[in-house]
Amino acid sequence: MRLPAWIPYCGAAPVPSALLERWNLDPVLLIALGLAALALHIFRTKVRLSYAMSGLGLVVVLYVSPFCALGSVFFSVRVIHDVILAALLAPLSVAALGLDKARLSVGLPTITAIHALTFWLWHAPPAYAAAMSNDAVFWAMQLTIVGTATIWWARVLQAAAPAAVLSLLATMVAMGALGALLTFAPNAMYAPHWLTTQTWGWSPLDDQQMAGIIMWAPASAIYLLAALALLYRMFGDKAIHEAA
Fold first, then answer.
1. What backbone torsions phi and psi does residue 183 show, to the nearest 5 degrees?
2. Is the pTM of this model over 0.90?
């Protein structure tokens, strides 16, 4: 069977010697980043500038630097990319825009389920393959992951500690379950990477298993640590009140 020519948004998979040359200079993206930087300057008193600039810098790393092209090689790098969207860029967006104080109509259980299902959907092999072969689908993937994660983090921060902890643990379980599925799958399932990893010394199955381990352990640990921090603060506040 002849495989399609996968040309992801970040370009064809580079060989190791060419990676550092592979900066993404998409003019539309660069103009958008420039306009975003200008907007932050104009409205700097209305946002938390340090968080906003950190988020903008993270976007540059993800979509402009050679890290973008490396995601065309490795599914595991794409997983790191998507975890960064959900677990770093989204909370930075909440902090920058003060969304933890915004009135949001969606309930925490609902947005928890929507965010988890969104993450699972985009890592189903057919949806992932579509995102890696069509720029519009790729950006739909990016925006829905970070969008649902941003609303979810905002609602977590607004919720009472027990509900927030439960939501964080549910998200941890969803992330870990997907990671376990990828780790123990007997075959490489992601066609865009069937022919891209070999020049880097990895098999496609090795790459997929590494992606699963990343989701299963360090990515899940982010949500566990957040839940433990909330529990620590909750019991610490309770102890202070009882002592008073």
1. -65, -40
2. yes
